[in-house]
Design goal:
The structure is a single chain. Helix content is 58%, strand content 0%. With 81 residues, it is mainly α. The protein has one domain.
Length: 81
């Protein structure tokens, strides 16, 4: 799992939104040209899927991590003599 900061998620979200908007404008300009329009539509759908998966990771919980006292620099019961 790749962990991203909130700032990275916001930046990627904005980039995806801008790309989708740009591709939608291009799609409107090439309307009636079958192949070009189809390619642009596929790219838009791909970006929308990426955007949905990115939005799904915003509040996804990470696995808990157990930190023992020895990891914090303290004395652990296991090593005390």
């Amino acid at each position: 799992m790749q962990v991203r900061t909130g700032l990275e998620i916001v930046r990627l979200h904005q980039e995806y939104r801008e790309k989708i908007s740009e591709l939608e404008l291009c799609t409107a300009k090439v309307e009636g040209h079958g192949y070009a329009q189809k390619v642009l539509d596929e790219q838009i759908n791909h970006l929308r899927k990426l955007l949905q998966s990115l939005e799904g990771t915003r509040f996804q919980a990470l696995e808990p991590v157990n930190i023992t006292t020895s990891m914090l620099g303290g004395v652990s019961d296991i090593f005390s003599q």
